[in-house]
Write a structure and sequence with these properties.
With 232 residues, this protein is an alpha+beta fold. It is built from 7 helices and 8 strands. A hairpin with a 2-residue loop joins strand 1 and strand 2.
Length: 232
């Protein structure tokens, strides 16, 4: 049986990998078993996944903090080990295939890296700047999502939602039921390969409303080509 950290790792992998653009998933899986797979997409998938994992987990290598690049390299190696059959099943939207992939990648990472839960510092409920956002970037208490949000899994409603603006999928918000994470709603902005303009692709907020608003703000800023002030 997995411990809390193992469960958390697999949950984060599931969200980081499944949020990839459909084009990347198709390129990774191919158009039939072993046919027309484009393995060059492994590197950007691995970088996105590493960024997410390093944001929310303490990751070390032989007792020293692991670099984001090192984690990305390990994720890429794990993805290269995925069989043609499993990779293709991902394009068929098979939940079982995605579970198998996440478990396979997690086992590979656990064999070469050490994972621990990042301590919760109470910053979500602080009155001052938190989560890396400046005071003028905070989600106001009266702000409401303007897009359309639905359960990620129609057959299994829960704390996991996908957001849309028109026909465009803009991101995802979800909650993980583990001790110490109850106040966090994680969010992901859909990656399409366009410049980030200083905006983060992942983060967390104190409520589903705030997380959805955060995704919408960043998505609309990217669509308009607006960069984040002071975001690099």
């Amino acid at each position: 049986m997995q411990d809390d950290t193992g469960t958390l790792l697999r949950s984060f992998l599931n969200n980081a990998l499944r949020k990839q653009p459909q084009r990347r998933i198709r390129d990774f899986g191919g158009y039939d078993i072993g046919k027309r797979r484009n393995l060059r997409v492994i590197e950007p998938i691995a970088r996105d996944t590493a960024e997410f994992l390093c944001t929310y987990l303490c990751i070390s290598l032989r007792g020293e903090p692991a670099s984001k690049e090192g984690v990305a390299s390990a994720v890429a190696a794990a993805l290269r080990n995925v069989s043609d059959e499993l990779a293709y099943r991902l394009t068929r939207h098979s939940d079982e295939a995605w579970r198998s992939l996440c478990n396979s990648v997690a086992e590979f990472l656990e064999a070469c890296l050490q994972f621990d839960r990042r301590p919760y510092d109470g910053s979500l409920t602080a009155k001052s700047d938190h989560n890396g956002w400046k005071s003028w970037e905070m989600i106001a208490s009266g702000e409401r999502p303007k897009g359309r949000w639905r359960h990620a899994w129609k057959e299994k409603p829960g704390d996991d939602f996908i957001g849309f603006y028109g026909d465009a999928c803009i991101g995802r918000i979800f909650k993980i039921e583990l001790t110490g994470y109850e106040e966090r709603w994680y969010w992901l902005v859909t990656a399409d390969g366009s410049p980030r303009r200083g905006w983060p692709a992942v983060g967390y907020e104190a409520s589903a409303r705030s997380a959805a608003c955060r995704v919408e703000r960043i998505y609309l800023a990217l669509v308009k080509g607006v960069g984040r002030i002071g975001g690099g």
